[in-house]
Amino acid sequence: MNDTVNILLAEDNPGDVFLVGEALKAHGLIVSLHVAYDGEQAISFIDAADQNENAPRPDVALVDLNLPKKSGLEVLTRLRRSVTSANIPVAVISSSPRAAESVAKAELHADYYFTKPSDYNQFMVLGEIVKKLLNR
After folding, report:
1. Cα angle vertex 57, ends 53, 59, to 5°?
2. 3 — pLDDT class (breaks 50, 70, 90)
3. 32 strand-pairing partners
4. Alpha-carbon span 100 to 67, nearest angstrom
5. DSSP characters for 69-113?
6. Has this prediction a pTM greater than 0.85?
7. Is the pLDDT of residue 93 over 60?
8. Which domains does the chain have, with CATH numbers?
9. DSSP for residue 116
């Protein structure tokens, strides 16, 4: 196993992508951040990991539920059916506090629910959450 931590970030808002990167850096995490700006791109990333042993495999997934083309729930469903990545830790990132309820109803077993805050410092907490997910 190589030492690069691969994070799949399914997020369509470039500002939030930037903040996630900042949160990871703020907590000393050196990662390869694979950004999927819509659900189809995220599913393609998972498919590639399942079909090609040389393709990067996510060690953690951060998934926004409100994605274009395919929803975050569809991404989570595909992830949980993946041959290579079904059991990786997942944090749902959403602007809606009801995200946890949606994921729980779908029985997709996210490990953490992060409601996007409006405050920069509160957003930086996501780096600590990812650290904990990597060490679970």
Report:
1. 145
2. low
3. 6
4. 16
5. SS-HHHHHHHHHT-TTTTTS-EEEEES-TTHHHHHHHHT---SEE
6. yes
7. yes
8. 5-134 (3.40.50.2300)
9. P
* Inter-residue contact 96 to 64 (CB < 8 Å): no
Burial of 117 (0-12, 13-18, 19+ CB in 10 A): middle
Confidence of residue 104 (pLDDT cuts 50, 70, 90): low
Cα separation of 60 and 14, whole Å? 19
Q: Please report, in angstroms and rounded to a whole number, the separation of the first and last CA atoms in the chain.
A: 17
How many Å apart are CA 38 and CA 75, to the nearest integer?
9
CA distance 75 to 40: 8
Burial code of 41-74, b = ≥16 C-beta within 10 A, e = fewer?
bbbebbeebbeeeeebbbbbbbbbbebeebbbbb
AA identity, residue 7 = I
Q: At what angle do helices 72-80 and 99-106 cross, to 10 degrees?
A: 40
Strand stretches in the chain, DSSP E? 5-10, 31-36, 60-64, 90-94, 112-115
- In whole angstroms, give the CA distance from residue 133 to residue 136: 5
